[in-house]
Amino acid sequence: MGVIPAQGTHDPRPTNKLFAAKWKHEHLRLIFICAILSFAVIVMFTSLLRGAYAKSVTVVDGGKSVVYQSRSTDVSGFLEEHNINVGPFDRISLSLASPLEKNGHLIIERAKQLSIQADGKQQVKYSTERTVGDALAALNIRLGDQDRVIPGVDASIEEGMKVRIVRVRTETIETEHPIDFAVVKQSNTQLAAGTQKVVKTGQKGVLVKKFERVFEDGKLVSEQIVDKTVAKPAVQQIVAVGTKKAAAPTTLVAKTQGGVLKLNGKTIAVKHKISNVTLTAYSAGFASTGKSKGDSGYGITASGTTVKEGRTIAVDPDVIPMGWWVYIEGIGFRRAEDTGSAINGKKIDVYYDSESRAERFGLKKGYTVYVIGPVKPTSD
């Protein structure tokens, strides 16, 4: 029998695949540790990079200060990043396109609503100014030198504030006023006592007054005199007053005896006596005759004479003949020169120059009249 040789131990040489698997197995832990370290380095590097590019921005919004972190490059992006709204009337210290700087400052001034009443209109405006005066100037609302603002221009602006502008206008006017002249009386021995005569006619002067008027929103609220000037002085009127004593008047005392009339001891023959005569008075004016000065026949009597106070009377020619003289108790001598439609019977109309005097005369009854004749008797 043959001899079978004993087999030795088989130790084949390892292949590359086995070698790699063995190396991986042996170094897997090391690989895992390296991966963790690499990730940590990346995270740390990213954080450092982020910190290097992050910006700190201080925002003052409506007086309140807040610090923000931002990676935005401009103001517009920063506002959008942090959802900060800026109204159309608000004001920011930087434009929206301005670059955002590290450790920068951004100030936002919030506009406040104002209700402004001026020139008859009410309008709503917005302003970021601090005072009323600055707000009106910024809104191009002009104020006159005398205009009033309620509240005042120095008042601080508050949300919803009501502002009223009162337009004030002052004007000066001049008016003319008459100045009465003074009347100076001077004694005159050539004039009879009780009579007066204008020697120099007076003339009124002119006083100019200057007024200052104040209007508020077109309405007059005050007026006062600021100056007075005599533009034309008055000229005094000079009147002469008579002091010459007149002769003592003859008192006519009528006494009848038969067909004569005795006056102050003088005897006057009379044709006849008429008792219970009614007296009235008239003038040449429109109220009595229906005529005015300048009219044809104005002042002319029915007998053709011109009326004269102290002489003319109107009578009924059937009772007293025209042109005859009479003596009326309490009145005196008069001449029958006129007639009238209402003068009938025992009625006599006594003439006066003044219409008012004739009206005041009224109606007088119970008078005695002595008919003398066509010739006026004298007292002597």
UniProtKB/TrEMBL annotation:
SMART domains: G5 (SM01208). Gene3D superfamilies: Resuscitation-promoting factor rpfb, RlpA-like domain. One of its GO terms (biological process) is peptidoglycan turnover. Signal peptide: none annotated. Keywords: Membrane, Signal, Transmembrane, Transmembrane helix. Residues 165-245 form the G5 domain. CDD domains: 3D_containing_proteins. SUPFAM superfamilies: Barwin-like endoglucanases. GO terms for molecular function: hydrolase activity, hydrolyzing O-glycosyl compounds. Pfam families: 3D, DUF348, G5. One of its GO terms (cellular component) is outer membrane. The chain crosses the membrane at residues 30-49. InterPro entries: 3D_dom, 3D_YorM, DUF348, G5_dom, Resuscitation_pf_RpfB, RlpA-like_sf. This is DUF348 domain-containing protein. The lineage of its organism: Bacteria, Bacillati, Bacillota, Bacilli, Bacillales.
